[in-house]
Amino acid sequence: MIRLGLIGLGQRLAHMVTCFQASDPSLRVVGVVDPDRAGALSRLPESERSSVRFFDTLEELLREARPDALAIGTRCNLHAPVATAAASSGLPLFLEKPVAISLSQARALEHTFARSRSQVVVSFPLRVSHLCRMAKTRIEAGEIGRLEHVLGVNYVPYGNVYFDSWYRDYQITQGLFLQKATHDFDYLSCLAGAPIVRVAAMAQQGRVFRDRSQEPAEGDDSRAYFENIGRPETGMNEDASSALLEFANGIHGVYTQIFYSKHEAQARGATLSGLRGTLRFDWYQNELRLHSHAEAKTLVDHPPEGLNHFGGDGVLADNFIDVIRGRAPSASPLSAGLQSVYACLAARESAATGRFVTVQPLTDLAPAPLPSHPHAVPSPNLTLAGAPV
Questions:
Q1: What is the pLDDT of residue 210?
Q2: 3-state class of 173 per DSSP?
Q3: 278: domain range?
Q4: pLDDT at residue 147 is higher than 60
């Protein structure tokens, strides 16, 4: 039996528990740290509710429940502090993204885990999704020639969630580069085969999403109004943001995320270009297209339909179980989470200053492994709150 401890049981982590149990039915939740005990209990699988124990601190959970592994699903500002506190346990750790929301948090996390035995699986399902792995395989097979340019887009159809729920609190999220683009910077780096080293970025705030308390009573029908979402001067989430990216191997790219798209305007995916061809994929369309530059020919491929996070959640769950049982290394290690955070922090700084910004390199941890073929991966006292999807 695998004994799992949970810190911050929101909707996202509750979903991942069901994925872990689908991968290994012997897994049981033996302890939870979450101040909202009633809400956390309601989110647990039915089979766990009668036996699970709640604790006030991580220390109590470790001492009394004796878990084999831990999973952290707190709100974003607590990911790094809780993970840092858990590092001394040496236990395998599933950690929600972003792994940190500030440079000081990220550096403390990196320094702490350089001395920890814990293996970390960061919640980056896009890098191990079917479409991303299909794209990686075709790139490595030379089907577009040497990769030269990447374009990533994310037209979010549910952008209101970042303004009508706890995500609107800028002190928790520190903006949508860290909250949202952390996924995309990671999978783009994985496809490019190198980390992002320099960023130039722009962001729009307060043009579309507006704080109702700052406006006249009649409002403006060209804008979307919400309560307590802040102002550009004091910090708030973006309407849209974009970044020009330079990778360590000389590839460059562009990324854009839009948060006021709706319905069929949704899009999330990448275009990858080389001398011999162009490869495009979109997770919402569930489709990959390979366009040859030598002739008017397009190959089209479709992965299975209806999978959580486009198949990535199942792969992450399998990998976490393998890490716990000592059968495989992490397919989404802490170094990948930190490289993404450092790139997101650089993008946020660039958007604020109007300058190119060099990305903080990893210094204490080894760089994230970028496997040549992802299919080779085998299947303390803190105030906490759970993070929904």
A1: 94
A2: helix
A3: 133-307
A4: yes
